[in-house]
């Protein structure tokens, strides 16, 4: 069996691997185990527990017993009685039972109450489960969700689910455990096999137990109006704890005063009024700096905020102490994504939103530049040196963009509605770095559509060309080739109007890709040659290398091996000379394919082994899986059954570990293994 690259590989590629891919072990047989580093982090994104959680032992036992009998449970009850906290408490107590993690999804975050965006919800849950390639369509996402939860069964918690039709789309595989949280009658879900557990409001005795844990509020327990105030809280634990905190912090505030104010409201609204009154009192009691930051955060328009955004709004290096004070006052809550949420938010303030949009615009630009290095502008360096921004590196920049995506969507929409078109376009161009690495179709369609219209309003043909080119890539991923071609040609036309040769080359490259996706190789080659000619004229060395590589792939598909070989060797030398290991791994993979097509099997084996090293070092793990499969094919061609079996198995393990459950890859490999046996 071949164990190292020889001089048959142009440039004599050295196979000494760095430790970049920490979880990729490469031994005498190639890649033994492939797993991205972030898969070592088991997803545990259930909501944070309140320190005042109490009085639910019997229902925790009931939930535990129900989970032993049924894979699907419905926690049903009135609003704000503590259903989510009960689920979170139980989930935290059974971590060992679910080694593949916990996935919590609040459907209220994905659109109107009765019509949540199910595609966005599925994409979110697949991302939590570390799925490497998230599909574009809701049907494919549903299939992938079933596959990944069947092989890696987690505990899934769906909050605010009120429609069995939603359950049918989001339900995990039968091997997973599902806990649903809803308000409606359980009968609608019983037909789906859910076992209902009714979460009851706190009794007055339970509420008293909760108040007894708040130092300074003990007089509520003995006040003549105490029971009436408990009744006004309607058994809602959070409302009880808020009022207790108010009584503890304001010695001059009496139970009777609270009760009188609450009783001014209709009986059906008294529990909501009690919570609102408590929140108003807590806000009034804040220190000036706490009050101001709370005002800024509550009118910032974002769904969740980071410590860095809070510090920026506060005009300080750190706002951690103020955030902790707001948290202690129950005015902000920690979220499952380790950020914070204002309770309750207020209407967005235009002045505050101006600051928020500017901050997100600048930090998103920095994140995109750090992940895809380019020359930083002086204005960019100002925020790089600011302490009120996230600490970003190449490894964390993409994660920041992904974590903040919902807020970036919100601020881009806000900017678009107010005609801040430069900000709209800038945010989209920063987000495109994320879209190249994550399949987020619903977000991408919305943000790109806004950017196109904003660029039109600006009258900037270069910005319009970039936006149409971005949308063309999105449509190719959706396999809408006619519309993708129309967008690419529009991008080319606008690039010519802008007299921007680089954008014109990019548009030709996009046109070629649309043709290549449809296996229209002659048209693809022609478009690639146009793009290559422009890059040669510009003297863009990386553009030249990339286009030679792309043109070579089209030539290989058309059987024109000699010219393809020359182009691949040129791209290979350029990648080595310019020290681009990521490009090098990709070129080696296609060089191996060319050698394989020319029946140069032993040379192809050496090239694939070299490709494995580079693809592993640069963590291009999907391509690594492809290289492993091709390597197995080569060993099969040499009648080396052991080698073929070994590398096909490695490829199968790679797809499984990558959570790549799109179906075709595993089915193809399983078929090959079956034929061999």
UniProtKB/TrEMBL annotation:
SMART domains: TPR (SM00028). InterPro entries: P-loop_NTPase, TPR-like_helical_dom_sf, TPR_rpt. This is Uncharacterized protein.
């Amino acid at each position: 069996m071949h164990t190292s690259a020889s001089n048959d590989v142009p440039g004599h590629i050295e196979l000494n691997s760095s430790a970049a891919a920490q979880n990729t072990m490469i031994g005498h047989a190639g890649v033994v185990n492939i797993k991205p580093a972030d898969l070592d982090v088991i997803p545990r994104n259930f909501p944070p527990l309140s320190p005042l959680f109490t009085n639910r032992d019997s229902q925790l036992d009931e939930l535990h017993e129900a989970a032993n009998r049924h894979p699907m449970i419905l926690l049903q009850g009135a609003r704000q009685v503590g259903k989510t906290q009960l689920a979170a408490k139980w989930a935290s107590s059974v971590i060992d039972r679910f080694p593949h993690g916990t996935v919590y999804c609040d459907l209220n975050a994905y659109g109107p109450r009765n019509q949540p965006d199910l595609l966005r919800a599925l994409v979110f849950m697949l991302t939590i489960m570390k799925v490497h390639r998230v599909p574009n369509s809701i049907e494919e996402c549903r299939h992938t969700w079933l596959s990944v939860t069947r092989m890696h069964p987690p505990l899934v918690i769906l909050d605010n689910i009120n429609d069995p039709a939603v359950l049918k789309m989001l339900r995990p595989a039968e091997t997973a455990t599902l806990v649903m949280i809803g308000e409606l009658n359980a009968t609608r879900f019983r037909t789906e096999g859910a076992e209902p557990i009714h979460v009851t409001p706190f009794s007055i005795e339970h509420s008293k137990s909760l108040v007894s844990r708040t130092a300074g509020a003990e007089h509520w327990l003995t006040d003549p109006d105490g029971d009436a105030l408990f009744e006004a809280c309607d058994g809602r634990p959070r409302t009880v704890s808020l009022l207790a905190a108010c009584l503890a912090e304001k010695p001059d505030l009496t139970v009777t005063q609270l009760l009188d104010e609450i009783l001014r409201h209709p009986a059906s609204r008294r529990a909501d009024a009690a919570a609102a009154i408590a929140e108003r009192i807590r806000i009034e009691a804040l220190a000036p700096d706490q009050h101001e930051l709370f005002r800024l955060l509550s009118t910032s328009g974002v769904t969740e905020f980071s410590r860095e955004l809070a510090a920026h709004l506060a005009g300080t290096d750190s706002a951690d102490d103020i955030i902790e004070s707001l948290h202690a006052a129950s005015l902000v809550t920690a979220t499952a994504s380790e950020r914070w949420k204002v309770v309750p938010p207020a209407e967005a303030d235009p002045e505050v939103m101006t600051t928020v949009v500017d901050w997100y615009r600048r930090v998103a630009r920095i994140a995109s530049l750090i992940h895809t290095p380019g020359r930083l502008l002086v204005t960019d360096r100002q925020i790089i040196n600011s302490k009120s921004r996230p600490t970003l590196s190449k490894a964390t920049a993409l994660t920041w963009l992904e974590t903040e995506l919902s807020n970036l969507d919100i601020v881009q929409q806000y900017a678009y509605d107010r005609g801040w078109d430069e900000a709209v376009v800038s945010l989209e161009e920063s987000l495109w770095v994320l879209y190249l690495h994550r399949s987020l179709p619903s977000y991408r369609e919305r943000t790109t559509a806004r950017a196109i219209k904003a660029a039109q309003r600006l009258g900037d043909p270069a910005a319009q060309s970039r936006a149409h080119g971005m949308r063309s890539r999105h449509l190719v991923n959706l396999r809408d080739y006619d519309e993708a071609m129309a967008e690419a040609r529009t991008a080319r036309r606008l690039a010519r109007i802008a007299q921007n040769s680089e954008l014109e080359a990019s548009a030709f490259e996009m046109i070629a890709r649309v043709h290549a996706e449809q296996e229209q190789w002659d048209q693809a080659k022609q478009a690639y040659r146009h793009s290559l000619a422009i890059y040669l004229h510009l003297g863009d060395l990386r553009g030249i290398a990339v286009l030679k590589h792309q043109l070579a792939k089209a030539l290989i598909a058309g059987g024109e091996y000699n010219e393809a070989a020359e182009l691949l060797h040129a791209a290979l030398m350029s990648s080595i000379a310019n020290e681009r290991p990521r490009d090098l791994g990709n070129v080696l993979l296609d060089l191996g394919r060319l050698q394989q097509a020319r029946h140069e099997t032993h040379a192809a084996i050496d090239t694939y082994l070299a490709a494995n090293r580079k693809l592993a070092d640069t963590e291009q793990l999907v391509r690594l899986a492809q290289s492993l499969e091709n390597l197995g094919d080569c060993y099969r061609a040499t009648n080396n059954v052991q080698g073929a079996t070994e590398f096909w198995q490695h490829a199968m393990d790679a797809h499984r570990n990558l959570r790549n459950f799109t179906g075709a890859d595993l089915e193809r490999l399983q078929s090959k293994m079956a034929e061999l046996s």
